[in-house]
Amino acid sequence: MKTDRVITAMIEYFGSDKKRIHHFLKVYSFAKTIGESENLSADEQELLEIAAIVHDIGIKVSEEKYNSSAGKYQELEGPREAEKLLAALGYEKTFIDKVCYLVGHHHTYENIDSLPYRILVEADFLVNLYEDNSSRRAAEQAYEKIFRTKSGKNLLKIMFLTP
Questions:
Q1: pTM for this model (two decimals)
Q2: pLDDT digit string (tens) for 6-41?
Q3: Under the phi-then-psi rule, with left for phi > 0, alpha for psi from -120 to 50, and beta for the rest, what region is 111?
Q4: Which of 18, 29, 50, 97 is deepest in the core (most CB within 10 A)?
Q5: Distances from the Cα of 117 to the Cαs of 73, 139, 160, in angstroms?
Q6: Contact between 82 and 101 (Cβ < 8 Å)
């Protein structure tokens, strides 16, 4: 699996928006790490990594259309943008549909129905807790309510809950 083309396309998509570029690269890194630690199959790992790279692709359109980067707008606008980008890179429709499902649900925390979905949510949380300078209590709540993988819980504990 080669992610370099998708990463480069996303950097081109966001242009000079370094904040968005750094965010998706951090989420990608955590997702890759957690996925490998949780022994995902090669197909699930590829799905997870590509979804992590493009997970916030809808934020640009959301800000233009709704003047908001709220998660509900990202989930609404993201799949269409992800589909265009991945199709242009030659990905197959069935794979694109799986990625778009994750992009369209990465801010929906109930009924998480797959390990790649779970890991994407956890990786995004790890980055958002840091970027938002969240409180210890917020990290504790995420640990209790969101995190389920052994690897994700361990990373959250090390980064946010260890004195």
A1: 0.96
A2: 999 999 999 999 999 999 999 999 999 999 999 999
A3: left
A4: 50
A5: 18, 20, 22
A6: no
